[in-house]
Amino acid sequence: MDWIQILVAGVLATVGPVTAGYALSAIGLNLQFGYAGLLNFGHVAFMLMGGYGTAMTVEFGGPLWLGVLVGIAAAALFGLLIGIPTLRLRADYFAITSIAAAEVLRLVVRSSWAEPLTGGVFGIQGFAGDFHGLNPFPAGLYGLGPFVVTGRALWVIVAGWVLVLLATLFVARIMRSPWGRVLKAIREDEDATRSLGKNVFAYKLQALMIGGGIASLAGILFAVEQQSIYPASFEPRITFIVFVMVILGGAGTIWGAVLGAAVFNFLFFGIDALMARLQANVDWIGAILSPAEAGLIKYVFVGIALILLIVFRAQGLLRGRDEGLGDAT
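-> structure tokens emitted (329 positions)
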């Protein structure tokens, strides 16, 4: 068994653009769920709005920088549109309506009548040439020992993690402001906060829009890195993967979302590499599992790990046991 190659797969995934993108999405969800207590099961829709807003703007002749602004604005606007009629609902009803809104949006984007704008099921390709044209790293391999990436990948990695750092510092700043303290109070006791004269609905709406704007950066990063975007990339399971990352790292902590994304992807891709090698090199495993079935085993381990996490450390990796999250209502 080549354990070095398995370790390399896990480490490269941890520092790669996929983890950076998921970290951005988790930072946005952490603001909504960890700090505001919003049980948003339609979080992937903000990623979709960011990616498609950028791709469509460039596809119709706009510059990439304008597309990024349009993507962020579209995600924030989507938060406004779904938040106004739903944020007064109870937490469970808001969760149901948010996941329904996200799925309706995905089906609209992939529909045949929207194909002239969105590309339908085929999506949009080849719109991020300007970003890759700014790549300061010449073609070649960069890294140390077996941990190497191409110059193109390194440019996306650097851009992605700079965005993660900026988003984390932004959230840290606003959560230490009076606005952030009110948001935490809403999470802990919404009725008590309302009795003090605070407009709870307005604060929750703002948290939904700001968190959605941050999550849109994840959709933009994924679309730019791949030079393509498809509706199938934004299925509901993405939301629940991001929830696992937030809970794993510690909901309501500044760096918990980033740590959760890194640990999750290290285990996820490391287990995937391990199972691929076991399936290919261990006869009895190869006889039982096909390559496709072996690839699904990582989801089983993720489920087991999540159960163990909830049982033994429900507060997450970065949260002390005396810090209750409060009700997500």
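The chain has a mean pLDDT of 90.
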